[in-house]
Amino acid sequence: MSRQKCIALIAHDEKKDDMAAFALQNEAVLAQAKIFATGTTGGRVLEACPSLDVTRLKSGPLGGDQQIGALIATGEVDLLIFFVDPLTPMPHDVDVKALMRLAIVYDIPMALNRATAEHLLDFAGD
Length: 126
Ligand SMILES: O=C(CO)COP(=O)(O)O
Hints:
Catalyzes the formation of methylglyoxal from dihydroxyacetone phosphate. Residues 1-126 form the MGS-like domain. Its EC number is 4.2.3.3. Substrate binds at residues 12, 16, 38-41, 59-60, 92. The active site is at residue 65. By secondary structure, the chain is α/β, with parallel strands linked by helices. The chain has one domain (6-125): 3-Layer(aba) Sandwich (Rossmann fold), CATH 3.40.50. The chain is 47% helix and 16% strand. The chain has helices at residues 16-25, 27-30, 39-48, 64-73, 93-105, 114-125; strands at 6-11, 34-37, 54-56, 79-83, 110-111. Strands 3-2-1-4-5 form a five-stranded parallel sheet, sandwiched between helices. Strand 2, helix 3 and strand 3 form a beta-alpha-beta unit. The structure holds 1,3-dihydroxyacetonephosphate. 1,3-dihydroxyacetonephosphate (13P) is lined by residues 10, 12, 38-41, 59-61, 64-65, 92, 96.
């Protein structure tokens, strides 16, 4: 039997409402997966969908992006959904870039906006 899929969810502050709505809309598919999320994002996802299996890591600026990156490096993430805010400077921009870099290095499907995330979940739900 193949192991349960693992999905990482992250959203910058301006995109958190979008992430909560996305989680609610796709709750049935997300319920099949183990979810890792950065701290605040995970809290918002759990508020929207309390029954999901969400492990909350540190908040992004405090190391959460790096924790997700480490999980990618150890082969524990199958899909990264990261709603990025391209209009706000981030103090932890280097961490954001490092995470995206690892997703590319390990060839993990990565959605950086909602439109792409919907497509990826369509495939994951098949
Ligand atoms: O900053 C983030 C990603 O770079 C997200 O972290 P939070 O989910 O804790 O806000």
